[in-house]
Here is the input.
Amino acid sequence: MKRKGAPVILFLFFLLCLWTGGAAASENEKAEETVQLEEMRVISSPIIEGNLVDPYGAVSTIVSDEQIKDLNAQDIGTALRRTPGVTISRYNPIGSFGGAEGGGIFIRGKGSSRPGAEIKTFIDGVPMFMGVWNHPLLDLLSVDTASAIEVHKSPQPQLFGNAFAAVNIVPKKKVAEGFQTNLHLAGGSYDTLVQRAEHAGKTGAVDYYLGQSFRTSNGHRTKSDGELTNYFARLGREIGQNWYASVFGLYTDNDASDPGVKGADPLEREGKYGTEALMGAVKLEHAYPDIRGDIKVYANQGEGQQLSRPDGRPDAVWEFSYYGVKTREAFTAWTNGEVVLGLDHDVIKGEGGAKGDKWEGHTHRITSPYAAVNHLLGDRDGYYATPSAGFRYYDHNRFPSEIAPHAGLVLGYKNTRVHAGYARGVIYPGLEVLVLSEYTIPMLGDSWKDLNAETLDHYEIGISHAWTRVRADLTFFRDEGEDRYLIVPPPPPPPVYANIGDYRIQGAEATVNYIPTADISLFFGATFLDSDPGDLPYAPDATFNAGCNWEFMRNFRLSMDGQYVSDMNVTSQARREGEANETELDSYCLINGKVSYLFRPGEGHLETELFVSGENLTDKRYEYRPGYPMPGINAMAGLSLAF
Here is the structure.
């Protein structure tokens, strides 16, 4: 792929997302066990749409397009920044520099390993992350494509593999008959410009969704600029009453600069990091009373580009590609009994390096069939119990096979639900171990061939209860990680790879949604973590999140969000034996807000929104990395049209 610049001509008008006010359907949502609150017309929940528990005792947090809109989120990091259990890092107001401190997400202390990571990112289940270095790059994931973002905070072998936690974007889909156009234009501090345009339609058996967006900012510091460009399209068709076929495509082209440590030599900056990717997926689904499933064929390719480094190092471009097939069937094998069978086959390729000194690359293949079963005992209108069990098997073309079992139990009575479960996560070393051995540190030799997959044993128990206007969730969890692969330095020489790292994370998480009136919706969340070793990065002892949506004076809407994060260690967790993480950050508390005025001019169908948003409203000094101060109080104003 060749680097492409930002588009010269933008659309004449600009978009506001068409948000439907609910999480889009996905496999685990179809199977979820829901608790009905008293029916009342209310505004959307702040921060998150809710926590879903599937029949296998696995919990997922959903952030819908309504929350993305209320947070005025410009990327995946800002969309998830207030989600309980999630911590983020960044350098720039727009754009992510690389995939670690310059633009990362971390879930309950997982995700800081570099190269590689415990978290993987997906779009409709299709992998989209840096294949060479085996970790997420947030700019590859356009937030504009999302009708919902699913945050899986633990291993869930019945849904995904080769990860300890996952973030999945559910693409937008036009459901209702008719046509919709959404335009959005906003500008703000630091010469920030945001433009989006979407058009969707459904007529008979055919539906489509088209979108484009552009964002740019000079940033709050010298060399903290960034730019994001995205195009996406989705086309679907019903085939009879029970079948549905769709195709989804995404192109993204982005860059962000490293502003460097404040006051340090400018030559120590890392220059500019660019990302570019092209993705395509074809999906065939079916749904009958006793069986439903889908098959998906996908392919994508992309680049991570290290550019314009001030110390004179040449540009380096790392190219990756994925292709594969994913299929899943869930059927009623007997009364109240469900069986799930699935198969994922993923192929990962990568190559790259500096000009004239290129790593030629390799290919990894992972085939992972999985099976799960659950059975409902009792009646969901009264007492009920749903035991479950299953496993995922891994076959890798370079590393030993693994198996990941899981078991769960969901107990309930009317509006009260208890869930408990165990699941094993498996992560294989990626292409990064070959890059380091063959390109960066040749002394490592063939020691990578002796590596096994990393594993994590996850234990969880939780309870939730819904009153008339209140829903509360409380979860306790424990993660035990083993066989983290590290580089063991001399003596004796040479350095070698070995599976010798282990860690433990345990904690609790609580959320409360409260609807005091039809015009006000409140949210509170808290996460407490205890990790061993104690210097585990991005695992703060305590995090508190709060949000409020309030419709007032008929056409006005106020959205507020806030977060407190306690002291924590930061920066990437290097894969070297004995490497201590002594970089610490002080606690911080941030408050953001958005005020919108919504109206319909004249008698037409045009819906108009004028808004003003502000971040860091108390003008606090805070950092995600020492020496990288984040913006003080800043603002954005914009106009959105929907017709």
Notes: Helices lie at 27-30, 65-70, 76-80, 432-440. Residues 2-41 have pLDDT under 50 and may be disordered.
